[in-house]
């Protein structure tokens, strides 16, 4: 059984969803570049870091960084040669910014400028906000699905996402405990 992937650190997600070639009809099979691959290209080609420095920034080994970077370069080359769109999504990453939640509107927002203090919600302007602190999980036994409406808890099965589980008490779609989503109750399946 292969060793599980370590979560890779990145500064922020891209400010856009991808790229599309001009002059070609749209295709349904774009090239998907994971967030860690995007970060590897950003650190090496844009920030001009060497592989050792970039690997330290992403908190991975240098050989792992080299594999991520090579995969990203191959995908970009494939998109250029075949004229395919590029989409940025997925990957096993966490963002090196502070996240906040608004208790009034339920908005989650990040704050990349660490030197400035966050005082208001970016959506509604409320001062009723709190910083999100995710405590690291010690083992998979702590993975729990929770109903956002009634609080019913169920042990998370590794093969089934929590969003596919339905609460037996109130018929709501469940979420992973400890994630930002467990505070929201915007679920059409609820009674």
UniProtKB/TrEMBL annotation:
<comment type="similarity">
    <text>Belongs to the UPF0251 family.</text>
</comment>
<dbReference type="Pfam" id="PF02001">
    <property type="entry name" value="DUF134"/>
</dbReference>
<dbReference type="InterPro" id="IPR002852">
    <property type="entry name" value="UPF0251"/>
</dbReference>
<protein>
    <recommendedName>
        <fullName>UPF0251 protein AQPE_2425</fullName>
    </recommendedName>
</protein>
């Amino acid at each position: 059984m292969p060793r599980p992937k370590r979560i890779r650190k990145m500064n922020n997600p891209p400010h856009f969803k991808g790229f599309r070639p001009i002059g070609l009809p749209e295709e349904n099979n774009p090239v998907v570049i994971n967030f860690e691959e995007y970060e590897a290209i950003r650190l090496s080609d844009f920030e001009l870091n060497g592989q050792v420095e970039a690997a330290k920034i992403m908190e991975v080994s240098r050989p792992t960084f080299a594999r991520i970077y090579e995969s990203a370069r191959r995908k970009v080359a494939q998109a250029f040669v075949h004229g395919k769109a590029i989409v940025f999504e997925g990957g096993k990453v966490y963002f090196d910014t502070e996240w906040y939640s608004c208790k009034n509107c339920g908005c989650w927002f990040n704050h990349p400028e660490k030197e400035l203090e966050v005082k208001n919600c970016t959506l509604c302007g409320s001062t009723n906000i709190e910083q999100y602190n995710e405590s690291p999980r010690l083992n998979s036994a702590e993975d729990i699905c929770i109903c956002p409406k009634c609080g019913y808890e169920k042990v998370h099965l590794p093969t089934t996402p929590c969003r596919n589980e339905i609460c037996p008490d109130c018929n709501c779609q469940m979420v992973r405990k400890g994630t930002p989503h467990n505070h929201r109750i915007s679920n059409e399946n609820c009674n």
